[in-house]
Amino acid sequence: MLDQAAGPVTGVPGHSTSAIGGFAPGGMPEPKGAKPVEDRTPGSSVPNHRTMQRARVESRIASCDDVAWWRAGVQEIHLAESEDPGSRVTFWALIAFTFVLLLAPQAFLPALAPLHLGVLTAAVAITTYLVDRFVYRRPLLRVTPEIVALACLVMWALITIPWSYWPGGSLAFLVNDFFKTLAIFVLLCNVLSTRSRLRLAVRWLVVMAVPLAAFGVHEYLAGRFMDEGAVKRIQSYEAPLTSNPNDLALMLNLILPLTLALALAQSGTLPRLLLLGCAGLDAAAVILTFSRAGFICLAATSVIYFLRLLRRPERGWAIAALCLALMAVPCLPAGYMDRLSTITHIESDPTGSAQERRDDTLAALRLVSQSPIVGAGIGENILALNEIRGASWKKVHNVYLEYATDLGVPGLILFLVVLVGSVRSAGFVMRRTAWTPPLRDLFLLAEGIQISLFVFAIAALFHPVAYHFYFYYMAGLALAARGAHVGASREVTR
What we know:
- By secondary structure, the chain is an all-alpha fold.
- The protein has a domain at 88-287 and 390-493.
- It is 61% helix and 0% strand.
- The protein contains 16 helices and no strands.
- The protein has helices at 49-62, 88-103, 117-135, 145-159, 167-191, 195-222, 245-265, 269-288, 292-309, 315-328, 336-341, 353-370, 381-389, 399-433, 440-459, 469-493.
- Helix 5 packs parallel to helix 16 and helix 14 runs parallel beside helix 16 (469-493).
- The protein is globular and about 60 Å long.
- The termini are close together.
């Protein structure tokens, strides 16, 4: 690859920027203690030019102690990326499944309902993935600590089935629900493991969030609310992951950091403003859901990005966003601040939901203390809680307590291993790409994914979504980013 120019190259002011092999040989300072390369072409007194080029490339990658790509004067270097050998059909089937999962076209076109688009697209993705792995004799999956922890979680769920409140129900839940989530998780980890595919998948997620957010804003402006109670909440989008306002807010909050990551990766002002407009639409829709957990997650995303951007050249954008947010405070919908006040003043909630969730949380803690090892069986925390609090037939609104009540403390620990491992995978990619200008986009994507995982870790305190796609989709993106980093690093060092 070194004998082919791969695109525009810019570097640090004061250094040479002649583009050879897609790099600027003098574009970054030599690392401390570097020795000149004296390798020579056989039979010639002139040093081997190809070897000298390679040495300069490696010097640029190794000089991480001198400059980072976000420092002043460093701009992006464009590299060609090798084609991914995996099946493109699998990738596009996975994107189609995501489209059905988020936007549910069958809800607007009833003629599509008999096709069972979700099952169809997932089946195509899984089948083509398996065929591709078999035909080309590739490993079925990349074994990581997170994959091992999930395998242990499934084994533990199977082991505890005999002690479940409803063994048949636990087995059915494991096979019909949780296995589907894990299958998509595995596909995400292995199919999106190149920069180009990861970027494209994130772009599609951002695009799909636009109609979700626009629908929420439209419902509020049109005055379509769920009921006429003390708190008027918008009708939610009829899709598996957005069937109520809280779920809609959660989904938008998870995609919002990815939208901001794409915006920061843009070099042009117009594309960046367009993506920031999408982010603003997402934020507005979250507020109009009147979701208390949604507001907390939105605030967390804003604070994390603001603090990080203050240390970068994009600090001006962060300050401008802060000013706009402060100016928008008087435009908050009527009753919104009263709704937020019930976060700390639980007894003042006129709907009774805050009091109910507090009682469910206490009941779940009592259940865990009574059965800390095997739990009530996967998917059966409702039956167990009914015995303690009465037959309300509701899940505990806390992911961590869901795992603890269903699978005991061992199940909770295994889930935390997956959660922490996913966050660390995104952090690993950030550390390895922070000093490599060619991989700036990968750094920003990994940062967005990591913040999405932080958001889920907070939202998990308020949502009953332990086995749903929300977390496992973002965790799959995190592991895919780590795989993409391995391939991209090979491209850089060629």
